[in-house]
């Protein structure tokens, strides 16, 4: 623990294996953390974290993080699953599954599923709420999403698709 007086660990939390905690980390609720490095400013709540690198200022709530890198300043809201993936600066996930994907920075990915090999460009958002209901966005394998893209859900993107920067996607793509 680096600067342990700045670290809070809830009695219900479980840390196993080799864990490293940086300053200003808060671990609250029933968390399982194994073999992880957690940098300063992280807030973790009722999550399962294995083999992860959590950078400064991250908030992780009721989520699963395995073999992944998070942050700095990322926010994983409830029901998010991050496996073999990377989310960077100011990326927010909510009720989303990233499996083998990357979202480098400045994106909101709510109610979505993103498969392996896909890369999400800066400023990408999933427009998941129509004012009445929430809808899902599904992004297949090896999809390249250019910066400043908006996905208007419900929408599905086929494997091996390239989305140009600045696109507003309102229709499903077809593998072709």
Short description:
The protein is mainly beta and 176 residues long.
Number of helices: 0
- End-to-end Cα distance, whole Å, is 52 Å
Cα gyration radius (Å): 17 Å
Instruction: Give the oligomeric state of the chains in this entry, treating copies of one chain as homo and distinct chains as hetero.
Output: single chain
Total E-strand runs: 26
What would you say this structure looks like, in words?
This protein is mainly β and 176 residues long. The protein contains no helices and 26 strands. It has strands at 8-9, 14-16, 20-21, 26-28, 32-34, 37-38, 43-45, 48-50, 53-54, 59-61, 64-66, 69-70, 75-76, 81-83, 86-94, 97-99, 102-110, 112-114, 119-120, 125-127, 137-139, 144-145, 150-152, 155-157, 162-163, 168-169. The strands form 3 sheets. Strands 1, 3, 4, 6, 7, 9, 10, 12, 13, 15, 17, 19, 22 and 25 form a 14-stranded parallel sheet that branches. It has a 9-stranded parallel sheet with strand order 2-5-8-11-14-16-18-21-24, with no helix packed on it. A 3-stranded parallel sheet has the order 20-23-26, with no helix packed on it. The protein is elongated, with a radius of gyration of 17 Å. It starts with 7 loop residues before the first strand and ends in a 7-residue tail after the last strand. The relative contact order is 0.09. The mean pLDDT is 94.
């Amino acid at each position: 623990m680096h600067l342990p007086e700045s670290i809070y660990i809830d009695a219900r939390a479980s840390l196993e294996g080799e864990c490293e905690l940086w300053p200003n980390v808060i671990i609250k609720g029933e968390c399982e953390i194994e073999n992880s490095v957690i940098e300063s400013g992280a807030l973790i709540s009722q999550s399962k974290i294995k083999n992860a690198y959590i950078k400064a200022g991250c908030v992780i709530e009721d989520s699963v993080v395995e073999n992944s890198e998070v942050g700095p300043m990322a926010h994983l809201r409830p029901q998010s699953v991050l496996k073999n993936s990377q989310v960077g600066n100011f990326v927010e996930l909510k009720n989303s599954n990233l499996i083998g994907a990357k979202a480098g920075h400045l994106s909101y990915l709510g109610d979505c599923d993103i498969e392996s090999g896909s890369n999400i460009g800066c400023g990408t958002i999933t427009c998941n709420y129509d004012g009445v209901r929430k809808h899902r966005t599904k992004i297949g394998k090896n999809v390249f999403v250019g910066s400043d893209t908006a996905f208007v859900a419900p929408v599905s993107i086929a494997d091996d698709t390239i989305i140009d920067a600045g696109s507003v996607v309102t229709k499903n793509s077809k593998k072709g």
